[in-house]
Design goal:
Number of strands: 9
Largest sheet: 4 strands, antiparallel
Strand content: 5-15%
Distance between the termini: 61 Å
CATH class of the largest domain: Mainly Alpha
Length: 359
């Protein structure tokens, strides 16, 4: 009898230990990858987001879109992830840093919403599940979906939690940058940024190096044609000095094939975005109405500074506001960066070239 009691006691102790382990010893996938205050993103979700980002990176690396090649036809290439940029960072590490940055933004915004007293109602949770269920119908039912997601290390419930985080983050973004947001960029601030950071110019370019045929084929100009092009550059410069109309000359001679309307309206750009830096640097020295010639390896640019296009601001105002608010968001997240706790060893061990991309 005593032996029976002792055996039962040992069994109960084992069951209690097992129960404690089930409660306190979560699986590796459920352990935190990133923590911020009371918000956690699990390792399973983090790695799944790396798989998603990998798909995005592959399309960018090949210069294609989903309309050209489906994800099922997409091919991985280990060499892509070993490519090193000018800063000595591999493409694989850049991908992981992108995922971290996006998560930090989401977690910060979600926490901000919570700090303002916002929580998800049961109705919102039900709506999240309804929308998510609708998006996974292609897989069949929830069971089949989970089987498919095993390849990426996540399941339905984990992705629902991630969608909840995104919904909270959306609310946090509205509280910060919405119509009544505490950090919303005003119309006046957006206009001031536009006036300071954008410029308008019209361009006449004569290519003295290459010749491009209608079929897209480009060849080096024969020497005789090259000399003709150089002479044309000098003739255009003389014509401009004599007061001839810039727009007419651009329509007649520019290898950029601008229409009269395009040449007259010009192009409005953010400083630092034009492909030929020497041209942009020169434009910044000009006053409205002035023109200049800029010689580069491929030919000669004639550029004229135009009044800043106010209509462009009207069209791009929301984009400019978004740009400034993104800068503000980076600053806000930066202020609390030390509060993010990263599972650095886990993240470092993720091999981007070995994880699957999401099909």
């Amino acid at each position: 009898m005593k032996r029976t009691k002792r055996t039962l006691s040992l069994l109960l102790a084992a069951l209690m230990l097992m129960s404690a382990c089930l409660v306190g010893c979560s699986s590796v996938s459920e352990k935190p990858a990133v923590e911020f205050r009371d918000i956690t993103v699990t390792r399973a979700v983090f790695e799944y987001l790396c798989c998603l980002k990998k798909t995005e990176y592959l399309y960018e690396a090949y210069g294609i879109t989903t309309s050209q090649v489906s994800t099922s036809q997409l091919q991985d290439n280990a060499m892509i992830w070993e490519t090193v940029d000018a800063n000595g960072t591999t493409m694989a590490d850049t991908l992981k840093m992108d995922v971290i940055e996006e998560l930090q933004n989401l977690m910060f915004l979600a926490n901000y919403a919570q700090s303002r007293g916002y929580t998800l109602s049961q109705e919102q949770v039900d709506m999240i599940k309804k929308e998510f269920n609708s998006s996974i119908r292609q897989y069949g039912d929830k069971k089949v979906f989970n089987q498919q997601m095993k390849a990426y290390g996540v399941d339905y419930d984990q992705l629902i939690e991630y969608q909840k985080l995104r919904t909270l983050a959306y609310q946090g973004n509205e509280l910060l940058f919405g119509e009544e947001g505490t950090s919303r960029v005003s119309d006046e601030a957006a206009k001031a940024h536009f006036n300071k950071s954008y410029y308008t110019m019209t361009v006449l370019f004569i290519n003295t190096k290459n010749k491009t045929y209608p079929n897209g084929k480009t060849v080096v100009l024969p020497e005789a044609e090259r000399k003709e092009k150089i002479e044309l550059c000098d003739k255009v410069e003389t014509a401009l000095k004599n007061g001839e109309d810039f727009v007419s000359l651009a329509v007649k001679h520019s290898d950029l094939d601008a229409t009269e309307e395009q040449a007259k309206e010009g192009v409005t750009l953010m400083k630092g975005s034009y492909s030929v830096s020497a041209v942009e640097e020169k434009v910044q020295t000009l006053t409205e109405g002035e023109w200049a010639r800029v010689d580069v390896d491929t030919g000669s640019y004639f550029v004229k500074r135009l009044p800043l296009n106010g209509e462009y601001f009207t069209q791009q105002q929301e984009g400019i506001r978004d740009e400034l608010e993104a800068i503000k968001k980076v600053a806000l997240v930066g202020e609390v960066m030390e509060e993010f706790v990263m599972a650095e060893e886990f993240i470092a061990e993720i091999s981007v070239k070995d994880i699957p991309f999401v099909v």
